[in-house]
Structures are given as C-alpha cells and as structure tokens.
Specification:
coiled coil; Helitron helicase-like domain-containing protein; single chain; 506 residues; two-stranded antiparallel ribbon; 5% strand; mainly alpha; two-stranded antiparallel sheet; 18 helices
C-alpha cells in the first residue's frame, strides 16, 4: 500500500521535528503509531455528543470538498486508488454483522443524499456510475459475472416480494421512463429490429410458440449437457437456495396464487388427449398424459414367493415360476465404482462419458468369431457360429507389449496403470489407478490367475498349460470324464513323474 502524504504543518519547528522522526521510523513503529492514533480517535469520538459529531462531519466535508476541488486529475486517481485498497483490506477483515450494518448505513446515507440532489447532479452521478460499471464489468471473469447476476436476481426477487403496491407502481413508472429514454437514442435499425421482434412474438400462432419454446428448451439442454459436474452442482445449489429464500418471504396471497397456477398447469397437461397415435413414438410430447390412454389398474398384486408386484390380469408365475426360480439379492457395487455410477464422485461425468474406454482398458479377454457377415447398411453386426473370448498367453511373447490379461501380471501397479494409459491416453490416471486397485482387491478371477501363475515352474521348457474354468468346456481331443465337475470337496494332485503331453492346472 503506498504511503500517505503527511498532514503535518510545514512551518513550525515541532512539525519539522516530527516529520524527521516519521521519516526515519521503521515499519513496526509506524504501524504502532497508527494503532495508537486510531484508538485515541475512537475514544474521543465515542464520548462526543450528537451535535459535536455532526459539526465534526460538516467540517470534514467542507475541508474535503475544498481539497478535492484543487487537486489535479492525477492526484484524484491516486487518492481513489489508495482508498480502494484501504477499503478492500478493511472489508476483508470485518465480520458479517459489521458488513450488514455498514451496508444499511450506506443505504440510509445514499437515500438521504439522493433526495436533496438536483436533476443535473443526478444525471452526472448516473453517467459516472454507468462508465464505472462498464469498465469494471469489462474486467470481470465469466465466473464473477455469473455470480454477480445470480446475486442481482436474488436481491431483486427479495426486494420486489417485500415492496408495497405504491412502491411497485413507482418502480414500474421509473422503468417506463427509463425505457422511453433508451428508445429516444436508438437508431432506426435498432428500432425496426425491436418492433419486428415484438410483432412476431405478439402474432405468433400456438404452433410457432410451441416451436420457439422447444428451441429454447433444446438450447438450455445443450448448455446443461456441456456443463461440468461442478457447475451443475453449483447451479442446483444456487437454484435451491434462491427458491428457498423466495418462498420464505413470499406472502400468503402470492403462495396461494403460485399453488393454484401449478394445479392449473398440471391439470392442463393431463387433459391433453393423445389423438395422433401413428408414429407418436418418434414425436414424444411432454404435455400429453400417455398413461390415461390405457387403464390396467394398479400394480398391487403381490407374489406369495418372491414378493414381486404385478397387475391384476398378469399370469401367475411370470416372476419366479411359482418359487422355482430363486435369485440372489443384487449386491451393491464397491467403491469407487458405486459413486462413479451414481453421480456422487467428482469424476462421474467424465467416467460416464468414457465408460466404454474404461471398460476396454480393464478387459481380460478379446472378442472373436469365425464368421461375420455384414450387409450394405447395418449399424450393428451379426455373427454366425461360435463366439469366443480369447485369453491368450498370460505373459507377453518375445518381449511384446503387455495387453489384456497380461497387464494384470505386471508386479508394479504404477507400471500397470501406465500400460493401460498407453492404450487409452484420454483416461484419468488417478481414476484408472483407483479402479485398478479395486479390481485386484475384489475380483476372484484376477486373484485365481495371479495365484496360478505363481505355481508355474520357472525357466521350464514345458510351458504349454491349459486352465480349465468351466468343466462343460473341456479341451478338444480330451476324454469327457477327465474334466468332470467334482461332486464333493476334493483335492487333485498332479504327479510330476507321470508323463503327460499336456499339463493341466485345475
């Protein structure tokens, strides 16, 4: 902060001595002197009467007015810059109650000063405010602008909900006068554009209005789809706070009117008939109550076995075949997968937008088929014959780069993550590492494969192993009884002394 100019006299010896002392004082001594001065001034002002205070303020205003009338433009800008810095520092340290009290005092003082100002002074003040606001808003960021507009909307809504009828009429009259002044200075082109837009809006048909509102909804939807998860949360929190603040202060009459309008709007939506049913699936209308087109009754019939709900005319046994089918309850996904899927994670939006890439980064097998026939235009593909999920070698061959299941056998988890990011560079490294740790910890197949690899003899030439997961899919040319699924808890032992063309690991 720049050092303020001394207000000591230039003539007296005492003033010269004090000026010399202040010139040589340290920053700590200077702050101590200012603190003592502030305390002394605060004590003296706390003991003065109301008439003494008004007299002091009047003398200060006269002195300031005299000094400011003589200062140059450069000195004025320098003084205002120092004042802005001092105000910023002091306001950052004040409490919430002190801030509210200061703003209330400012509002009272401004209201009193504006009641006695002349028309010329008012126009000059408004012009200066417009210039200052235009300059400050040209420097603000997008986030600051959105925050300022949101604060303005809340403030205007609160003030208008509390204003009496005469104040409202006065405000509307001022707005009309302001718009009239604006239209006096607009060009002929601006006037024609404004009148054309108003005429189009006034003469638009019901279909044009619906189309305009549909375009508006699409624009809003596009904006909200492009926003980040943080921006969406901030928008929803701000909307909830705004709605809560408005409904806390709304009058009973306004509340009844709002609830009545909501009831009318819902009733109108339900009364719209579903007439054009042909190809209506491609033209969904949110205002049509499609459920009213069919009456199938409530879903209140409970199954005696699985407790599933069904409609009255539904056949029995559709849910669980009268108790013959018993499914295990669905377990909750582990963290962080659950938070990512439910939108509770900071990276949920990124994860859901790239969920296929994340799935491919952690896949253990490749997909294959012997015969694939495609037509002229086919957005999907059809496979004739047997589907295959290929595992391949558990370790890379001939120093090739790891892929699919081989990545899970890299001992260093950081190198595992880097190997996945080499295949999919647009993924989040921290998220990949977190999902990787989750799969290694809870996935039974990964644990079984890693355990099986530890039992392979090191530096063995007989490395042709087959891992049998499903006993129904036995290797080709093998006896069907060799790979039968055990009926009791058994332990299989493979003797190394017995010759075998193919080693099998169970």
């Amino acid at each position: 902060m720049p050092k303020r100019k001394s207000n000591l006299s230039k003539n007296t010896r005492k003033a010269k001595t004090q000026r010399l002392q202040r010139k040589n004082e340290s920053q700590k001594d200077r702050e101590s002197r200012h603190t003592n001065c502030r305390l002394g001034i605060s004590m003296s002002r706390s003991n003065e009467s109301s008439s003494e205070r008004n007299e002091r303020l009047q003398l200060d205003r006269t002195r300031h007015s005299s000094l400011r009338s003589q200062e140059s433009l450069e000195s004025r800008e320098k003084r205002l810059q120092i004042d802005r810095i001092q105000h910023t520092v002091s306001r950052s340290l004040q409490s919430r109650d002190s801030r509210e009290q200061r703003l209330e005092d400012d509002r009272i003082r401004h209201a009193f000063s504006r009641t006695i100002e002349s028309e010329g002074s008012r126009e000059q003040r408004l012009e200066y405010d417009r210039i200052r606001h235009a300059f400050s808003r040209s420097l603000e960021s997008d986030d600051s602008r959105e925050q300022r507009l949101e604060d303005d909307r809340i403030r205007h809504a609160v003030s208008r909900s509390q204003e009496p009828d005469d104040s409202r009429e006065q405000r509307l009259e001022s707005d009309r006068h302001y718009r009239q002044k604006q239209r006096e200075f607009e060009s002929q082109e601006q006037h024609d554009i404004r009148v054309t837009e108003q005429c189009d809006r006034y003469h638009e048909s019901q279909g044009q209005r619906i189309e305009r509102l549909a375009h508006l909804r699409e624009s809003v939807s596009a904006i909200r789809q492009s926003e980040t998860n943080f921006d969406r949360k901030r928008r929803l929190i701000t909307a909830r706070q705004t709605t809560s603040a408005l409904r806390d202060i709304e009058r009973e009459e306004n509340r009844r009117q709002r609830l009545n309008n909501d009831h009318i709007r819902r009733t109108n939506r339900r009364n719209i008939a579903w007439r054009e049913k042909f190809n209506s699936g491609f033209n969904y209308d949110t205002q049509i109550n499609y459920s009213a087109a069919s009456e199938i009754g409530p879903m209140n019939v409970c199954c005696n076995y699985c407790k599933a709900l069904r409609w009255k005319d539904e056949s029995k046994g559709m849910c669980c075949s009268s108790g013959k089918v018993c499914l295990d309850s669905i377990q909750q996904p582990p963290e962080p997968l659950k938070s990512l899927l439910c939108g509770e994670h900071d990276q949920s939006q990124h994860f859901l937008n790239n969920i296929r890439r994340y799935n491919s980064a952690f896949q253990m097998t490749s997909f294959g088929a012997k015969e694939v026939h495609e037509g002229n235009y086919m957005p999907t593909f059809k496979i004739q014959g047997q589907l295959y999920h290929l595992i391949g070698s558990l370790l890379p061959v001939d120093n090739a780069r790891e892929s699919f299941l081989q990545i899970y056998f890299i001992s260093d988890y950081v190198l595992q993550r880097d190997a996945r990011l080499q295949c999919f560079p647009n993924l989040n490294p921290m998220l990949v590492e977190s999902l990787q740790s989750m799969l290694i910890e809870i996935n039974s197949y990964i644990r079984d494969f890693k355990t099986a690899l530890q039992y392979f003899p090191p530096n063995s030439n007989e490395n042709d192993y087959k891992i049998v997961i499903n006993a129904d899919r036995r290797p080709s040319a093998e006896h069907r009884g060799r790979h039968n699924e055990p009926t009791t808890n058994e332990v299989s032992v493979l003797l190394a002394s017995q010759p075998s063309p193919v080693n099998c690991l169970f």
